[in-house]
Amino acid sequence: MNRAVLSLSLMSLLSTPALADGGFYGDPPDATHPWAIHDMNRPQPPRVEPGTFSSQDRPGTPPSDAIVLFGGMAEEIEKWQADKQPAEPTKWEVKDGVLQCVPGSGYIRTKEEFADCQLHIEWSAPSKVEGNGQGRGNSGVFLMGQVEVQVLDNYNNPTYADGFASSIYGINPPAANALHAPGEWQTYDIIFRRPIFKEGQEIDPGYITVFVNGVLTQDHTPLEGGGGHKTRSQSRAFPEKGPLKLQDHGNPVRYRNIWYRPLPKRFVDGGEYSRMTPEATAAKRAQIAEKIRSEANQKEGQAKMLSLFESLCYASNDEAKNSALGMLDGFTNEVKNLPAEKLATQKGEILQVTKALRYLTKFQFLPQELEAKKVLEGMIEANAWEKK
Q: Which one, out of 118, 254, 323, 345, has a CA that is 20 to 30 A from the CA of 93?
């Protein structure tokens, strides 16, 4: 390696974000974790602009990535249809920016179909109190058309607990009654995960988490097949997607500000999480290693060498390993022959390469007895470049 290339590569080392900010730092990937701890190769979270909270007088705004099912415009009724086969237009009405149930017209469902989601929906029972128990302000929110989160005016209105407002109907009562008075707007924020079945076997029962007016009422409640009226449900597979349904139970319940955000897949369904299946982990580690090697080919000198070494932490590759070791030998021979005044100018680069070698040998990506590492460690000790 000539001196011009060496000097250029030493400078480029300092501008390598993945290495400068976290390479050779935290515990490496393992059989079920494709990323290292504090891994700069891990994808950054996408930016989502948050929405605003609702008040009784005004609905809030959804986050920037939300899919709006009803935001108050009359034409949004076209996103809904009567829950009939064949489908037909709904008779529910939009009045003053509110979607209102017309008693006797039947359930409605979205044309949009989706599954795992964060769902936001606001509802209001009639301000004029009529009826009691299940006959007062009754409706329901059906995720995928399969699981009902109960809508009911339970403000000073007892009923059976597993049919209470925000119950998973027929399965689990809410942990608290956090409702406002009749006629006021109630806010449901729901996290929904459908059951996952593979080869006829349940591997995840599915769950619902519910907040009512900011109060947690369902805490990761298992679906147990989805519940229902009078009959205990059994665990079962759900379709891949389904509509959101709203129930007509004979009461003029109103709705507003309905939106959802699709959720990423769980690791049991092939999603990318901290812990993944061994098969998915191996595939992801190979993918990361290939990306790092590809990027290394656009670099020179020590930046290229360290990127090739970094790729070995994700997947073994003899070509990458041998190429990086050859570059390491060249680097070591170059710096050990520098006079003392010039050696000092390479302190940062020597420390950076040695840090990488300590990591790679500690976790057995390189042999423990590495001659180049001994040479560089000797330089660091002789020049007292590390504080005790």
A: 118
CA nearest neighbour of 150 among 71, 246, 83, 59: 246
Is residue 178 assigned to a domain?
A: yes
Residue 116 sits in the same domain as residue 260? yes
Burial of residue 216 (CB within 10 Å: 0-12, 13-18, 19+) is: middle
Co-location of 134 and 264 in the same domain:
yes
Nearest 5°: phi and psi at 217? -120, -25
Say how far apart CA 315 and CA 328 lie, in whole Å: 19
pTM: 0.87
Q: With contact defined as beta carbons under 8 Å apart, do 261 and 63 qualify? A: yes
Structural domain boundaries, residue 234: 67-269
Q: What is the pLDDT of residue 164?
A: 97
Q: Where are the alpha helices (DSSP H) in 134-204?
A: none
Of 244, 162, 175, nearest to 212 by C-alpha is 175
Query: What six digits make up the tokens of 242?
Result: 């389904």
Q: What is the pLDDT of residues 53-85, one digit of tens each?
A: 999 999 999 999 999 999 999 999 999 999 999
Burial class (CB in 10 A: 0-12, 13-18, 19+), 265: middle
Q: How many other C-beta atoms can be found within 10 angstroms of the C-beta atom of residue 386?
A: 10
Total number of domains constituting the chain? 2
d(C-alpha 272, C-alpha 283), whole Å: 11
- E strand map for 242-365: 242-246, 254-262
Residues 17 and 104 in one domain: no
- For residue 86, is the peptide bond before it cis, meaning its omega torsion is within 30 degrees of 0? yes
The torsion defined by the Cα of 273, 275, 279 and 285, in degrees rounded to 10, comes to 70
**By the 8 A CB rule, do 139 and 126 touch?**
no
* Residues 79 and 104 both lie in one domain: yes
